Structure formats: structure tokens, C-alpha cells
Amino acid sequence: LALTLDPADWAEIRAVGHRMVDDIVDVLEGLRDQPVWRPVPDEARERLRQPLPTEAIGPAAAYDEYRRYVQPYARGNNHPRFWGWVNGSALPLGILADLLASSMNPSVAAFENAASLVEEQVLGWLKEMLGFPTNVGALLTSGCSMSTIIGLAVARNVHAGADIRRLGVAGIPRRLALYASTEAHASVEKAVELLGIGRESLRRIPVDTDYRIDLGELERHIVADRRAGLRPIAVVANAGTVNTGAIDDLDGIATMCSEHGLWMHVDGAFGALAWLVAGMRPSLAGLQRADSLAFDLHKWLYLPYDVGCVFVADQASQRATFAKSSDYLNLMERSGRPATNFGDLGIELSRRFRALKVWLCLKEHGVDGFARQIAQNIAQARRLGERIDEAEHLRLMAPVGLNVVCFRFEVEGLDEEKLEGLNEQILSEIWSSGLAGLSDTRLRGRFVLRVANTNHRTRGEDFELLVEAVERIGTDLVRGGAGGATRIPPPGQEGARRSS
Ligand SMILES: *Cc1c(COP(=O)(O)O)cnc(C)c1O
């Protein structure tokens, strides 16, 4: 008999699979009664550092290790009281969809197959949802960072004044300049660095009191750079900043871009989805004038990681940036049945079937279901803002225009440094108690606690618990003397202070 890695006993893998589905549903159903987060205990940490396995243990034993050492120590973002950074809360059907997608196991590139048609259909739906024309170039990606790299790569190639694909950035005659507010996400800077343009060429423009880009300053910088011999190429507008959820004046930026011949890229990671809520459309006016738009579906469409999307208004330029033909891919082109070659629209060739979870969940809830859910998140954030305003020792630190609430505990007589220590400690205690997951950031240099509500499981009472807990912990700390305790870092990425 030839070797294979398929199970010797199909009944066993079937049983493991059934258990997995049962466990997934049990965990989701019971989340509210669990702590949001718990530290990884030493035993699990130990298990997760064991050397490369050489001997087979079979699927049931392998799954058991997952159940014991991995599953209980999640980041916490599926929990009803998690509002840290900007994280998704996962739709149950989306979770199962990823299982189905892996079972079909297509590489969604070219070549006629239903997975490609599903992605085409989903991209068409997303364009319709956000009010974009059907002919824009579109692609599902691993997330907004990748979408921004793709959008800005096209911007660079269109506006650099050189054949970048042939000559590279060395062929660019004049130094390029791009513009974004001081509130723009780190992924914008990363994209500019990776594209060989260099961080210094990303001009950071000051914001107004609502954390929106100052249009007067923006224009002044563009004109000054051009006078100084630079080549301004693009403005990156925010539709929902990571710090406060601020939405730049998209219409104003679009007009300025067309007057100055610049590309307009919009980072709408979560904020773009607020377009589904009729009452938010005036704040997002001009969104559809973007030359490129990057947004996530794993944040405010509640899908499991990872899935993002990019639109490029001029699809021909997108193809001109990425398309390649290769002898070994000829069959895909020759098959005579037209299918989008997604590899021509972005960086990846082998791509997983991300579209399936979008497709299934849009059918499951309908776009109206998502619109209502997003509207609820916004209303909850506004109510939390009001609650903070009413509370004796809490202070709202930025306007609540979308779903992000920045606040802190304050008592009279404490200087800035003491207030920071106190709020850091409150944050740390909230995490270690498992009561809620929130994060922190700095606004105009001041340390603030931050809630970003992209959670479809949150109820009003959950925010009530948060407000009570912050007030209680803060008051106790002040009474007992703040400072001294070590801060327990929240789970996740390096740099727990950085919003993602
Ligand atoms: C999350 C986020 C990003 C990065 O998106 P990823 O999906 O993490 O790559 C970019 N911009 C904003 C405003 C974000 O919130």
C-alpha cells in the first residue's frame, strides 16, 4: 500500500470533526460567563515550547492538546466585553465558512472554478454596499495594511514620472511626497517605507480639535513641496482614525486632490463600513471619490480573521502595476472560459478562499442586518460617551463621532504623570480581572483609555459594568495611593501600547 497522510480510519477524523464543531459552539455560547482574558499559565507556556514532534500522535491527541493549551488562552476579542485596539468579534457562520473554504482548498487565482466566481460576486456586493461603480478594480486581501500597500503601489506607479516596474525607484527623477494627518495609522508609513519612497516623504499634517486633517495646512504643504522641487503624488485620508474614529473631510480632500493632480487613497479600515448606516453618510461624503480605498471585513463586518478589501478606481492602472504573464500560467489564460486573474490585481498569487465567509454571512444576515448591527455599535459608543460625561471622576478625552471612546479617570490635584500612572494601573487591573478588554493610546501627548466598539456581542449593560469598574478601581487606587504596581501587559502583539 502506498503512503498517504489521509486517515487510516475515516470514522476517527469524522468524530474529531464533530467534537471540534461542538466545542466551537460551546465556547461561543458560554463566552459571556468567562473572563475576557487570562494569562497563559506556565504549564501551557511550557507545552507551547516543546521541540519538533517526530512521532505521530494522531488527530484526537493533537486536538486534545489544542483544547488544553491553546483554546483557553485566546486574545479575548470574541468576548462581549472586548473593545481593545480595533479587533473583530467573529461571526459563528464565518468560523465554519473558513473550515469549508479549507476543505475546497482552492488557490483563488485564475482558472474557472466556483471559488473565483464567489469572490467576483462578493466584490460586486461590496462595491454596491459602499456605493462604488461596478467597474472599479477590487480584491480581497489579508487586511487593510495589505490593501494600503496595493493602493499606494498603484498611486506611486501612476504618478512617479518613471517606469518603476522596469527601473525601480532609482528611476524616479524627483523626490516624491505623500500626505496624511498625524493621526494616520502606522500601516500607511509602513507602506510608504516598503514602496521605496521613504518615511520622510510622508508629510504628517496637523489635525483640528476633532482630530481631522487641517485642509489649510495640507494645501500649504503641497504647494511648498512643489515649490521646493518635490513631486507630490498622493493624500491618504482617514475614514475613521484608529485613535478616535475621526473622519477627515473626504470631499474637501477629493477636491484638493483633483485640483493638484494627486491620488486620493482612503484608509477606511473600519470607518468605511459606517457607510451602511444612513445617518453616517453625510460624515463620509466624498468616500466614493477615492482613487483607492482600503478597508477591513474582519473588523466592522465581524468576520473572522483575516479578510480585507481594496478598491482601485482605475482598474487598468491596477493591472498595469501588478499583472505578469508567465509560461507556466498559460493554461489559466487559455482555458477559454474567462475568470478573473486575481494575481493581476495584487501581490499574492496563491490566495485562500476568503470570499466564502463573506458570501455566507452576507446571505445569512443580509446587508440590512449588518447595517443595524453597526448602527447599534455607534449608538452604544455615544451612550458610553454620555455616561462618561455624567460620571464624577471620568473625563471624555475626544468627541465620539463613530465607535471609538477615549476617556480617563481624573481626580483633582494629580499632575499629568500621576494621572498617567493611575490610568495605566486601572487598565492593568481591568485586564487582569478579566472583566473587559480595552486598550490605551495618547492624544496630544496625554495617556487615555480607549474603547473601540466593533463587537456584535456587546450589550448596553456591558459598558455599564466597564464604567462602574473604572470608577471603582480608580477610586480605590487613589485611596490606597496610586503607583507602584507593575503593569500586566495585555495579550497580543509586541508593543501593547500601540493601537492596531
Ligand atoms: C486596523 C487598521 C489598519 C490595519 O489593518 P490590518 O487589517 O490590521 O492590516 C489600518 N488603518 C486603521 C485605521 C486600522 O484601524
What does this 3D model show about the protein?
This protein is α/β, with parallel strands linked by helices and 500 residues long. It has 15 helices and eleven strands. The strands form two sheets. It has a seven-stranded mixed sheet with strand order 1-7-6-5-4-2-3, with helices on both faces. Strands 8-9-11-10 form a four-stranded antiparallel sheet. Strand 2 (176-181), helix 8 and strand 3 (202-205) form a beta-alpha-beta unit. Helix 4 packs antiparallel against helix 13 (355-390), helix 5 (114-130) runs parallel beside helix 13 and helix 14 crosses helix 15 (460-480). The longest helix is centred in the C-terminal third of the chain and has 36 residues, at 355-390. It is globular, with a radius of gyration of 24 Å. The chain starts with 9 loop residues before the first helix and ends in a 20-residue tail after the last helix. The model is unreliable at 483-500 (pLDDT under 50). Bound molecules: pyridoxal-5'-phosphate (PLP).
Q: State the strand order across the main sheet.
A: 1-7-6-5-4-2-3
Largest sheet: 7 strands, mixed
- SSE class: alpha/beta
Radius of gyration: 24 Å
| Mean of all residue-level pLDDT scores | 94
Instruction: List how many beta strands DSSP finds.
Output: 11
| Spans where pLDDT lies below 50 across 5 or more residues | 483-500
How far apart the termini lie comes to 51 Å
Strand content: 5-15%
Helix residue percentage: 40-55%
What would you call the shape? globular
Write the layout of secondary structure elements.
Layout: H1 10-30, H2 42-47, H3 58-70, H4 92-104, H5 114-130, E1 137-141, H6 144-159, H7 164-167, E2 176-181, H8 186-194, E3 202-205, H9 215-227, E4 231-238, H10 250-260, E5 263-267, E6 292-296, E7 308-312, H11 315-322, H12 330-334, H13 355-390, E8 394-396, E9 404-409, H14 416-433, E10 439-443, E11 446-452, H15 460-480
Parallel strand pairs: 2-3, 2-4, 4-5, 5-6
Antiparallel strand pairs: 1-7, 6-7, 8-9, 9-11, 10-11
Pyridoxal-5'-phosphate binds next to helix 6.
